[in-house]
Amino acid sequence: MDRFTRVPIAEQDPKVRATNFDEVCLGYTEEEAIVEAKRCLNCKKPLCRGNCPVNIDIPRFIHHIAEGDFAEAARVLAEYSALPAVCGRVCPQEEQCEMKCVLGNKGDAISIGKLERFAADWARENNIEVGRAKEKNGFKVAVIGSGPAGITCAGDLAKEGYDVTIFEALHEAGGVLVYGIPEFRLPKETVVKHEIENLKKLGVKIETNVIIGRTVTIDELMDKEGFNAVFVGSGAGLPKFMGIPGENLNGVFSANEFLTRNNLMKAFREDYDTPIKVGEKVAVIGGGNVAMDAARTALRLGAEVWIVYRRTEEELPARVEEVHHAKEEGVQFELLTSPIEIVSDENGWVKGIRCQRMELGEPDASGRRRPVPIEGSEVEFDVDTVIMALGTSPNPLIPSTTDGLEINNRKCIVADEHGKTSREGVFAGGDAVTGAATVILAMGAGKEAAAAIDKYIKEKYNK
Ligand SMILES: Cc1cc2nc3c(=O)[nH]c(=O)nc-3n(C[C@H](O)[C@H](O)[C@H](O)COP(=O)(O)OP(=O)(O)OC[C@H]3O[C@@H](n4cnc5c(N)ncnc54)[C@H](O)[C@@H]3O)c2cc1C
Ligand code: SF4
Question: Average pLDDT for residues 444-451, to the nearest whole number?
């Protein structure tokens, strides 16, 4: 293996994995991880690290892997990240750390994500302890939502000795990691549950089935239940639709509902009762990670699947690896195509989707070329299910039940770069503030807010 070529990683065969929900990527062996890690130049000014949203000391953890000291590699990762086994699997590394790796100038960038995943998995499989909490300091913090933002904020505060309770609306903790991202990309029992267990070991209490704004309000948590500060990490779970005719037909799902039924309520398993009806021909509208996850899930449930996306492959916002895997498994792509109507049969079920072909025009405000309809280019596809994966926005419940909590015109909570909101003692971060984004950005926000909450409480109570 030369310095400029990546050690390939084992994956399930595409034909086999398209029929099961087991993880696609099988991970590096110890020997493979060492060979890959040895390619790293241990740069004095590591550009990879500068492009990591949580500033992980990438050369240091890779160096420990190269030396065969996997436990130390996992400890380095734990200094910066509460979820390395998750990030190693789902972060868009090709746009972050790996994009800046100097080896990428001449050949393959180091497989930083796969090495991160290797070290975190190794530590889990070998029961290595990577974090400890200080003695309790007598202050209570409530964390709303158990996604990556809430998990990170809670973990960091618990390590500092705070008495932390997470309140989660659903019956299981993990946020999008359990209800959104499918099992074949992120195993729930082994990986996600382990991270949640680590949090509990730090003393964090998790109360599920509690909807803040309904069961109890933020004001009540602070005024009656004695919480000194609150972190809102409630995500952006409200699906968007296109506003085209036919969106109310039977057989139209939001990707959120479709994926939640499958992931959290295990509709794909015959021994579970959750109903899910996926037809024989499915159109998934959108081009992000959510669209790829919905398409690949529908494929595994036995359907023939098309992604319908209005720009070209170059603009697809999904991770490159997910697009590659989707294609390998047999998902088909109708690019430069935009739906204009979902067509009904005589019983109110979907029987097709009418679309318009597009071409790319001048760049829009986002800098991407705007898709423009081509006149007279309408086409109709025979499908019996349509899944809308067009993005999500935050649920207005918490702002509407919390006095003085400002939101912007996108319904996102307004917070500064440390998570401070317009309401004293209330901090926020993750998708609830940014709108739908990424796991690592939500984690970064949770980390910033934990530091700001610590500072706020110490200053307020003169500690
Ligand atoms: C299908 C899918 C695939 C994705 N794939 C990727 C990927 O590959 N890579 C990547 O980086 N990102 C991906 N993302 C985006 C990423 O998962 C999110 O950006 C991230 O999870 C946001 O974290 P969060 O903690 O802010 O919110 P969430 O993970 O959404 O967690 C918020 C939690 O708050 C709870 N909650 C909401 N309201 C209340 C309330 N009133 N009371 C109590 N609890 C409440 C919710 O039930 C939820 O559990 C994906 C998203 C989806 C949906
Ligand atoms: S830029 Fe690449 S080679 Fe340099 S330290 Fe980072 S991973 Fe290693």
Answer: 96
235-243 mean pLDDT: 95
Whether 244 shows a pLDDT value over 70: the answer reads yes
Phi then psi for residue 143, to 5 deg, are: -115, 125
User: What is the distance in A from the centroid of ligand 1 to the CA of 237?
Assistant: 7
Q: Which of these, 289, 171, 369, lies nearest to 297 by C-alpha position? A: 289
Per-residue pLDDT of 193-219, as tens digits, reads 998 998 999 999 999 999 999 999 999
- State the average pLDDT for the chain: 94
Q: Classify residue 26 as exposed, middle or buried by CB count within 10 Å of its CB (0-12, 13-18, 19+).
A: exposed
Instruction: Verify whether ligand 2 is closer than 6 Å to residue 239 (CB atom).
Output: no
Ligand 1 pocket mutation pick from 23, 89, 143, 176 by most atoms within 8 angstroms of CB: 176
- Kindly provide the b/e burial profile for residues 361-392, where b requires at least 16 CB atoms within 10 angstroms of the residue's own CB: eeeeeeeebebeeeeeeeeebebbbbbbbbbb
Measured CA to CA, the distance from residue 287 to residue 111 in angstroms comes to: 25
pLDDT, one tens digit per residue, over 93-149 is 999 999 999 999 999 999 999 999 999 999 999 998 777 788 999 999 999 999 999
65 lines ligand 2 (CB under 6 A): no
Q: Best of 7, 40, 45, 47 to mutate for ligand 2, by most ligand atoms within 8 A of CB?
A: 40
Contact present, 113 and 87 (Cβ < 8 Å): yes
Lining residues, ligand 1, CB within 6 Å:
90-91, 144-150, 167-170, 175-176, 180-181, 211-213, 233-235, 237, 259, 289-290, 293, 319, 395, 397-398, 430-432, 436-440, 442
Sign of CA dihedral 430, 101, 322, 286: positive
> From ligand 1's centre to the CA of 6, what distance in Å?
31
% residues pLDDT > 70 (the chain)? 97
Pairing between strand 304-308 and 281-285? parallel
> If you take atom 13 of ligand 1, which residue's CA is the nearest one?
438
The structure tokens listed for 170 are: 């659903």
pLDDT 10s digits, 262-318: 887 666 667 766 667 788 999 999 999 999 999 999 999 999 999 999 999 999 999
